[in-house]
């Protein structure tokens, strides 16, 4: 809903108020300064524990190369875990969102309420209880175990978000597909999913970011170095090598890249996701 | 997904069977429809419902480092609860959690609202700037924490260098027991501003324009319009933003660990980090469960507000 009104309003020609734009840029500079500093520090690997200059003097990429040596494997782990989590998340949440949006199920409201309530369960409480269960099931230190836990970060959000979009699919479209002899599953895969592409992408992006950013499950559900995502990698590295800031910041830049890429590629989906998922 | 069974098209069934039983087909249809929803419900029960129940049970059990070899965690009544509530650190962490959460919310909300109002004015590049503003919120929290740890360094951090230009002495942001909690709160405000801005901006965009036209015809000042029209109309969104903010702030763990590890001298320990320390560092999962339960209880009170807010939205 929010996006529709935004779009229609944006059509109106903006008044040329560049003074406001300048102020906006200033605010943005202040907000993004820490991220600039991250990149800046990463490009001055020789600064170590000294003060960092305001701008890098040249393109010293040795911080990045040592970060790739130290954290390259962990970055790949993060990628694998996050992608796995997205697949699990969408596989569970897309059908559920459809069912809750279109079938007039008794109890659907309760499920939606329950989904909203999950947001109040602190992650550390989940980890606390999950750990011993994971030990029993042999899921500690496993990729699959971490993928499952990380998928749980995205599922409630994905259900709420996709449901709010799927409600808008006209019943006639679904009925027409079923009259044509398509089963419920076929209708879902062939008609509903393509029509919900945008919400599917948004949910996928967010569950990717949630899983990629996860630190707590990585920290608590792993006892060895076997499965170590980059968030955990950086945290442990900084504990052990206090002085090596250039390399740490380079690793941080690499860990922040997915966020930046997603923001550039999928700007409108992300804004819609934040508002759509939390207000509706 | 694999558990969802797809019944053949209903049309075939009705021609093949001589007398279709409407009640039975309806039941079969309902069952097939629940097949779409059930896997996700089961997943959420396992990953959210079960931990809640399990934590309550665990809080009455005695866990030791050897528990995971022997499998023995005998029930010990209220011992864990007594230990936690008798420990000064718990009271300290509770107080610090409250200060951190409320401080974060006030800061995030006020600045977020200001920025939302700012971006609500239309100006060139407004949309792009607003989108870029999201970046701090999208970056993994641990990464933000580590970056700020460098910025806030007492001797070589850029913040103190900058403040030094104005003659302000080197503040031990993360190493003084008096300042560390404030520093952690400030960093969390920075992280939360984008979220508040985006949701409040969305809320502002949905407000009916006619009311504003009427107000400006009546000659109402900008501040008056904001106070008597914008804020009351925005109330449902404000509630949602504050409650969601509360629930994500009160349980925070990543940021504190990345910035201070709960130190110095436990001065930034929160209920979240305390749960982690008890369970995963001391391996006393029973004590950790007690602290976790308190955290759940606090969140639950606010979940009630959240559900109310959602119901008032007219859903």
Please identify the top-level CATH class of chain A. Answer: Mainly Alpha
Count of all domains of chain B: 2
Q: Largest beta sheet of chain A, briefly?
A: none
Mean pLDDT of chain A: 85
The third-level CATH topology of chain A is MetI-like fold
Looking at the overall shape, the CATH architecture of the largest domain in chain B is: Orthogonal Bundle
> How much beta of chain B, percentage-wise?
under 5%
Low-pLDDT parts of chain B are: 1-17
Query: What's the oligomerization state?
Result: heterodimer
Instruction: Kindly name the structural category of chain A.
Output: mainly alpha
Give the averaged pLDDT of chain B, no decimals.
Answer: 87
How many β-strand stretches of chain B?
A: 0
State which percent range the strand residues of chain A make up: under 5%
**What pattern of helices and strands is seen along the backbone of chain B?**
HHHHHHHHHHHHHHH
GO biological process, one term (chain B): transmembrane transport
Membrane topology (chain B): Multi-pass membrane protein
Family (chain B): Belongs to the binding-protein-dependent transport system permease family.
GO cellular component, one term (chain B): plasma membrane
């Amino acid at each position: 809903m929010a996006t529709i009104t935004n779009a229609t309003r944006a059509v109106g020609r903006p008044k040329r108020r560049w003074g406001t734009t300048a102020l906006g840029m200033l605010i943005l500079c202040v907000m993004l300064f820490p991220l600039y500093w991250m990149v800046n520090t990463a490009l001055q690997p020789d600064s170590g524990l000294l003060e960092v200059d305001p701008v890098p003097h040249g393109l010293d990429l040795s911080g990045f190369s040592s970060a790739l040596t130290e954290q390259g494997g962990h970055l790949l782990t993060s990628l694998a875990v996050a992608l796995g989590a997205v697949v699990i998340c969408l596989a569970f949440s897309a059908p559920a969102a459809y069912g809750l949006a279109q079938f007039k199920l008794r109890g659907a409201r309760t499920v939606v309420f329950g989904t909203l309530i999950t947001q109040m369960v602190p992650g550390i409480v989940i980890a606390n209880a999950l750990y011993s269960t994971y030990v029993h099931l042999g899921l500690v230190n496993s990729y699959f175990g971490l993928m499952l836990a990380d998928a749980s970060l995205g599922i409630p959000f994905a259900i709420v978000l996709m449901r709010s979009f799927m409600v808008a699919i006209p019943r006639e479209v679904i009925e027409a597909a079923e009259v044509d002899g398509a089963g419920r599953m076929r209708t879902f895969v062939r008609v509903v999913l393509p029509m919900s592409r945008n919400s599917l992408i948004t949910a996928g992006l967010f569950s990717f970011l949630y899983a990629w950013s996860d630190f707590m499950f990585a920290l608590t559900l792993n006892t060895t170095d076997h499965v170590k995502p980059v968030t955990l990698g950086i945290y442990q590295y900084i504990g052990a090598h206090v002085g090596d800031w250039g390399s740490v910041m380079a690793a941080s830049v690499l860990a922040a890249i997915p966020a930046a890429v997603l923001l550039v590629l999928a700007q409108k989906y992300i804004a819609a996701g934040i508002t759509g998922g939390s207000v509706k | 997904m694999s558990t969802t069974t797809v019944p053949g098209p209903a049309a075939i069934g009705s021609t093949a069977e001589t007398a279709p039983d409407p009640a039975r087909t309806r039941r079969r249809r309902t069952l097939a429809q629940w097949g779409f929803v059930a896997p996700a419900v089961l997943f959420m029960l396992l990953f959210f419902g079960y931990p809640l129940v399990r934590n309550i049970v665990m809080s009455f059990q005695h866990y030791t480092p050897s528990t995971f070899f022997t499998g023995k965690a005998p029930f010990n009544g209220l011992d864990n609860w007594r230990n936690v509530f008798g420990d000064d650190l718990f009271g300290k962490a509770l107080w610090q959690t409250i200060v951190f959460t409320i401080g974060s919310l006030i800061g995030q909300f006020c600045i977020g609202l200001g920025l939302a109002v700012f971006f609500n004015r239309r100006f060139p590049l407004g949309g792009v700037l607003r989108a870029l503003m999201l970046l701090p919120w999208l970056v993994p929290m641990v990464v933000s924490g580590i970056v700020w740890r460098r910025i806030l360094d007492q001797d070589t951090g850029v913040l103190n260098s900058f403040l030094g230009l104005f003659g302000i002495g080197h503040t031990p942001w993360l190493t003084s027991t008096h300042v560390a909690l404030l520093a952690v709160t400030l960093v969390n405000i920075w992280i939360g501003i984008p979220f508040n801005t985006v949701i409040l901006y969305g809320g502002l965009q949905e407000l009916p324009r006619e009311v504003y036209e009427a107000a400006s015809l009546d000659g109402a000042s900008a501040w008056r319009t904001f106070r008597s029209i914008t804020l009351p109309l925005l109330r449902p969104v404000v509630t949602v933003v504050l409650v969601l903010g509360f629930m994500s702030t009160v349980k925070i763990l990543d940021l504190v660990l990345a910035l201070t590890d709960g130190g110095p001298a436990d001065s930034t320990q929160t209920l979240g980090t305390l749960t982690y320390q008890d369970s995963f560092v001391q391996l006393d999962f029973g004590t950790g469960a007690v602290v976790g339960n308190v955290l759940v209880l606090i969140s639950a009170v606010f979940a009630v507000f959240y559900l109310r807010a959602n119901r008032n939205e007219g859903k």
